[in-house]
What we know:
The protein is an all-beta fold and 199 residues long. It has a single domain (3-193), classed as YmcC-like fold (Beta Barrel), CATH 2.40.360. The protein is built from 1 helix and 14 strands; from the N terminus they run H-E-E-E-E-E-E-E-E-E-E-E-E-E-E. The protein has a 12-stranded antiparallel β-sheet with strand order 8-7-6-5-4-3-14-13-12-11-10-9. A two-stranded antiparallel sheet has the order 1-2. The chain is globular, with a radius of gyration of 16 Å. The termini are far apart.
Amino acid sequence: MNPRMLLIPAVLAAACATAPVATSRASGSAAGGPGDYFPLAVGNEWVWDDVSPQLPEGGRRSARTVRIVSKTDDGYFRDNERTDLRADGECVRDRLRRLLCKPLTTGNAWKSVVSASSTERYEIVAVGERVEVPAGRYDGCVRVRAHNRAGPTSEHVMELTYAPGVGPIRLETWAIVDGVAAPQIRAVLRSFRQPPPSR
Length: 199
């Protein structure tokens, strides 16, 4: 699983702003569809901070900017890293995988076959979460966990948290070898910018 593929559509709502989406903690579901949790439009821009645990003490934290620069003829939004994303009635997807699928309910699971030897398994593990990142505090978030087996006793795990009206706001990955988890990548949203609507 390539964590870059999930950062590409760099989508996080305006810094310190939230777009409320109704959630139901009792039923473990969130209102709205996948596209409401990953707004795709030309000009949307997300800036991410790398806060990975392996950075040296006092080490420089790099920033990564993802901007949607165009829309392809077949309806995908392309970012500055040449990743294509699309939201339809069922899922937000790139060209190989389904990243967030309805129903937005805890326990909903799906698979994406990304090659002959690689199948990624996704599951919604939380809805209605409140998450704070440098860009602000967001309510009604949905957290998705993905697994990809790397060998007989190892796998890669990724968790991606989506905020309504913003998109992904937090990304964490781990390598699990012989049952022991080692944190790898951690990135948080610093800012999200949408161009003003055209008149």
